[in-house]
Amino acid sequence: MAQAGTFVWTDSEVELLLNVVREYKVNKTRENIDWESCRSKYVDILRQYLEQYPAETSTEFPHEKRELTRAILTAKMKTVRGKYRQTVDSCRRSGHGRVFEVCEQIWGGSAAITAMPSGIETSDLNQSLPPSPSTSSSSTEEDSERRPASGQTERTPSEEKTSC
Predict the structure, then answer these.
(1) Neighbours of 96 (CB within 10 A)
(2) What is the pLDDT of residues 16-42, one digit of tens each?
(3) Closest C-alpha to 72, from 154, 8, 25
(4) How far apart (Å, rounded) are the C-alpha atoms in residues 64 and 55?
(5) Which residue, 77, 28, 7, is CA-closest to 49?
(6) Contact call for residues 4 and 71 (beta carbons, < 8 A)
(7) Are 23 and 48 in contact (CB under 8 A)?
(8) Is the separation of the CB atoms in 154 and 148 below 8 Å?
(9) Positions of the chain with pLDDT under 50
(10) Cα distances (Å, whole numbers) of residue 55 to 14, 49, 62, 67, 140
């Protein structure tokens, strides 16, 4: 039986795995379940993968079904996800470019790997913030009329409506 370190995946096997993972994610999302937190995720994906894996060996699918274990599948999924994250973090699409789009459909919505489309200008922030108390002018008669008298608490309009 192949060990996780000696199992060499073909491109076709990786593409099949990613398509099964994408399908699994879509099905769990429809059920309103966070697919990555499912305890049986790897067992379920392995079962679906083996169902779709061709019975006859070929150059594209050279392994027998019994060679693939949950440990091998889990290690490969973690490796592909790690390489996808590295690619996103480095802002390039090389390496696993042929499967990048499928990886993006699977893990693209994760907060840890979602890139911001554009930055935030500090001038935009400064214009939207009210002036700080240290930079505002001294209080006016109008300000003192709005403040509650000493010892009273200020009420919001909704509190005034519901109070007896």
Answers:
(1) 17
(2) 999 999 999 999 999 999 998 889 999
(3) 8
(4) 8
(5) 77
(6) yes
(7) yes
(8) yes
(9) 1-2, 95, 110-115, 136, 139, 144, 156-164
(10) 17, 12, 10, 13, 84
